[in-house]
Amino acid sequence: MEVATEVIPLTGFRLEPPSVTRDGESLRFRGFLCRKSVAMSPYRVRLERLSSDGQVLGAATGRVSGLSGRGHRCTVYTVTAPWRLEPGDRVRACAQRGDGPCPAAG
């Protein structure tokens, strides 16, 4: 399933856009989060469903593990969201060390 995805960068990490599959009435997003430098690791990935005009219509998060230490490594993230995407919807993705919305792209 193709979904337009906007990835918000986090210093020291590379968040790959997820692949998307339908899982019953939900969507399952899977992607990679990779360490590029020594930095405090994020503990979750947040996905936001955005309307064509940029309004946040929903959010879902998935925990991230396996990035402790200093080595350059990657981990897989999985987020399940109870969404049905409409034409024009897109997804914004960000890795987070805290709570709250993804920052706007700049």
Q: For the largest beta sheet, what order do the strands appear in spatially?
A: 1-8-5-6
Helix content: under 10%
How many distinct beta strands? 8
Radius of gyration: 13 Å
Q: Which parts are unreliable, with pLDDT below 50 for 5 consecutive residues or more?
A: none
Mean pLDDT: 92
Number of domains: 1
CATH top-level class: Mainly Beta
Q: What is the N-to-C order of secondary-structure elements (H for helix, E for strand)?
A: EEEEEEEE
Q: What fold name stands as the CATH topology?
A: Immunoglobulin-like
Distance between the termini: 27 Å
Q: What proportion of the residues form beta strands (DSSP E)?
A: over 45%
Q: Which structural class fits the helix and strand makeup?
A: mainly beta
Helix run count: 0
User: How would you describe the shape?
Assistant: globular
Largest sheet: 4 strands, mixed
| CATH architecture type | Sandwich
Keywords: Plasmid
Draw up the topology in text:
Layout: E1 5-8, E2 13-15, E3 19-23, E4 26-35, E5 44-50, E6 56-63, E7 74-81, E8 90-96
Parallel strand pairs: 1-8
Antiparallel strand pairs: 2-4, 3-4, 4-7, 5-6, 5-8
Task: Describe the model.
Keywords: Plasmid. The protein has 106 residues and is mainly β. The chain has one domain: Immunoglobulin-like (Sandwich). Helix content is 0%, strand content 49%. The chain is built from no helices and eight strands. The strands form two sheets. The chain has a four-stranded mixed β-sheet, with no helix packed on it. Strands 2, 3, 4 and 7 form a four-stranded antiparallel β-sheet that branches.
